[in-house]
UniProtKB/TrEMBL annotation:
Belongs to the adenylate kinase family. It comes from the Eukaryota. It holds the Pfam family ADK. The keyword ATP-binding does not apply. Keywords: Kinase, Nucleotide-binding, Transferase. This is KAD4 kinase. The keyword Nucleus does not apply. PANTHER family: NUCLEOTIDE KINASE. Residues 130-165 form the Adenylate kinase active site lid domain. One of its GO terms (molecular function) is AMP kinase activity.
């Protein structure tokens, strides 16, 4: 485990690679990845909900409509899982709204916020080609990360599905909604001087800059080349 506390979140529109960045941060810096998306799947689908070995925040996409504001909602159930202080690799997809950001403030003070800025056309292509395994949340992209056998999950052999909001006709509206909702969250963290923005079309090219930033805050356990 890392020897220094770090509190961070990763912000970005759907399809921006938040989950991939979060997983790499967890591996490279010895941090636990607590997934808000996994928490929702377990809460709604009967998973055990256990979070082993530390409990920082992390997450996966596709949960925006479920992560409602307010302590009587799923958000209210998720926040108590985040201890303060905590070792935090990344919080992907959370907070999505200003209300969620203020709720997170009650738990801890963030050290940094990573914002992924990906061009609209890239996001549209990524989302339209994205298929998921409903049981685990594993994500495949038919362009650059396809399953071994078309249409089925690599580990279970179960059918993959395309989320309704990943269908081409829904993507544009989804991205516009994210932009409107995320703007005040981004402005909040920018005003605090903890926002770090990274732009590009490929996660592999953005990652070295994220790694360098995190390395200035917390000692890595893996080199960039080992990740």
């Amino acid at each position: 485990m890392a020897s220094k506390l770090l509190r961070a979140v990763v912000l970005g529109p759907p399809g921006s690679g938040k989950g991939t960045v979060c997983e790499r941060i967890a591996r490279s810096f010895g941090l636990q990845h607590l997934s808000s998306g996994q928490f929702l799947r377990e809460s709604l689908g009967g998973g055990d909900g256990e979070c082993p070995r530390g409990r920082p925040v992390g997450g996966s996409g596709g949960t925006g409509s479920c992560m409602m504001d307010g302590f009587g909602s799923i958000l209210g159930a998720f926040l108590p899982l985040i201890p303060a202080p905590f070792h935090c690799g990344a919080c992907t997809g959370f907070p999505r709204t200003l209300g969620q950001a203020k709720a997170l403030d009650r738990i801890c003070e963030l050290d940094l916020v990573i914002s992924l800025n990906i061009p609209f056309e890239t996001l549209k292509d990524r989302l339209s080609a994205r298929w998921v395994h409903p049981g685990s949340g594993r994500v495949y992209n038919m362009d650059f990360n396809p399953p071994h056998i078309q249409g089925v999950d690599d580990l279970t052999g179960e059918p993959l599905v395309q989320r309704e909001d990943d269908r081409p006709e829904a993507v544009a509206a989804r991205l516009r909604k994210y932009k409107d909702v995320a703007k005040p969250v981004i402005e909040l963290y920018k005003s605090r001087g903890i926002l770090h923005s990274f732009s590009g079309t490929e996660t592999n090219k953005i990652w070295p800059y994220v790694y360098t930033l995190l390395s200035s805050k917390i000692p890595p356990v893996l080199s960039d080349e080992e990740n």
